[in-house]
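Sorry, can you check?
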Amino acid sequence: MKIMHVFRSPVGGLFRHVSDLAREQRILGHDVGVICDRETGGAAADKSLAALERVCNLGLTRIAIGTLPGIADFTALRAMKKIVAASGARVIHGHGAKGGVYARLTGRKLGLASAYSPHGGSLHYEWLNLPGAAFLSAERLLRFSNSGIIFVCDFEKHLFEHKIGIGKCKNAVIYNGLQPQEFAMRELSANAADFLFVGEMRRLKGVDVLLDALAQARKTQPFTLNLVGDGRDLAKIKARAENLGIAGATFFLGRKTIGEALPLGRVLVLPSRHESFPYVVLEAIAARVPIIASRVGGIPEILAENQLVTAGDAKDLAQAMVEAALHPTDRVSVAELQIKAAQLFTVRRMAERTLAFYNLLH
């Protein structure tokens, strides 16, 4: 099978998903290619794409793909049609809002089967604003008979049905997967804190709630927190830690790989207000890291009830943090979760189920 993957930005969980999927499809004997934006990602993306290009025997091409709908999309679509036609691809798989629009329109023009994985994408938008109305309207119009939708969790499927409607479009839920080498117990660093946050420093990720919860939890014990990542709200978050009187217990460590980050805390805390199906939860499970997370998105499809807290509720989170720190054996067995993840959340399983879905589209 000849497969072309299309997406906009070569960063984050979406890029990791595409990279893993393309590599595994190549290992399984299929031909793969990639088309993505040439303007985003910086030096880190350039390096990752250079490594991915080695497995893309149908080519890896970067063109200009804007974030929001605009006139430039017509130029990009013409370029993409030529690239896909020249590659000989028979399936085009779009990832994210822009990737999904481009892949399905190009697939229809060339008579190819097309698959679409939202990865949140247009589901982050609402009908009440102009960009949201444009993306969500496009979603409704692009449910062609030779196209299908792959969701990364049941939550994403239900949200799509609610906002857009699936109609008669073929669809499947296929979970993200990890590489075999990721299923290895982590060793704690000498400077590990009691708790660890890994992610973007922004309100959506609930870092403010985590700081409030830490301040409450420290009334019981002098707990510490390592925070890995950066983002637009970093200055505000640091100021909040100062105002709460916990600056001496919170350590902002900047960006790190997940392998570097997980040894830096005894319990991972994911206090997000919104999520889809975050890789960091799977990565922590695979490394046998205890987790506390908000009951949002697809997270309840992975974790047990006693690992979950109410999003935005600092008191609930503080209680869970104290319980996890003082009575770790009362939480769900991290070994049991790792075994479950090794069966359900692997790159091989993800790739095989995705290939089977492509065959339904012809």
